[in-house]
Amino acid sequence: MTSPALAHQTDFGRMYSRRVGGLPEVPSITTVISQAASGMEGWIGHMAASAVVNDERLAGAIGSPAKLRAVARDASGAAETFRNAAAARGDRVHGYCEQVALRALGRPHAAAEHRARLDEHGEGAFAARFDDWWDEYGVVPLAAEVTVWNQQVGYAGTLDLVAEVGGRLCLIDYKTKGTGRDGRVKQLDPKVVMQLVAGYKAEEMVVDAEAGTWEPWRYGADPMLLGVAIGETEVQSMMASPSVLPVYWRRFWALRQVWEATMQVADAGVALRPVGPPPAAAPAAGTAAATPGGPGAAQASPAP
Fold first, then answer.
1. Does residue 280 sit within a domain?
2. Collapsing DSSP states into helix, strand and coil, what is residue 248?
3. The whole model's pTM is what?
4. 235-247 pLDDT per residue, tens
5. From the centroid of its chain, how far is CA 60?
6. Using CA atoms, how far apart are residues 81 and 69, in angstroms rounded to an integer?
7. Residue 161: which CATH number?
8. Residue 155, Cα to own-chain centre: how many angstroms?
9. What are the phi and psi torsion angles at 100 (to 5°)?
10. Inside any domain, residue 81
11. Which site among 144, 198, 201, 262 is 20 to 30 Å from 255 CA-CA?
12. Are 163 and 170 spatial neighbours (Cβ–Cβ below 8 Å)?
């Protein structure tokens, strides 16, 4: 994940400030979306099991509890290791894509350096396929890595690219994806629609992050929302269907309320306190406890 100048990592996820050095004020678009259940438990278990099966130490660990625990301990972090590696790869690919856009905009860029970095990691095919896509679609960039803000709902985020494609205004979000067994790039998660519609609903865009200068959002006039899956064998462009945008926006809005409620719960203080039993009730005045053979016990009537 890239780190825009106005973004901050906090205990409540990534948040944005209005200027460089300012306090974080609102959650990022991706932080809001992350409030939804991920449903990744099965995948995490699969990654851990695969790590155990493929561990070269496994055969020698049979019969040794200590060695088996070491294998299990390392395997338990397999999913996190994979995610971290994928995130780093995604950052490198996104960095290259940004530099290509800056080059096309006639601005200072480091496209060659970013391409070389991908090549060093054996990831040059991602750049090659992206270049093919850029040329085939005739992309005309208008803004790259632009940070946007919605004050009414309370969120901010950074859009990968605003461009014209075929004469149509487009908001574009890149996703670096692996390759399936069929040799095709893996499909995008429909949650990308929430990310795109949140960008579409922006109210402001940053002009000068250092000074904290903003201006009204220029690109909200009926854009096409594109999720672009960048793979090693191909790049696939997917348009968010206009008919589903209202429900995806509603879900994003609801998740924003979940994020805020989570913060409020964290600040609410102790939720549960121990409570003991109530004190024993004192006997009423003028009465005595009935005990066998004692005062107040029932007396037998004399025999006739």
1. no
2. helix
3. 0.79
4. 999 999 999 999 9
5. 39
6. 18
7. 3.90.320
8. 14
9. -60, -45
10. no
11. 144
12. yes
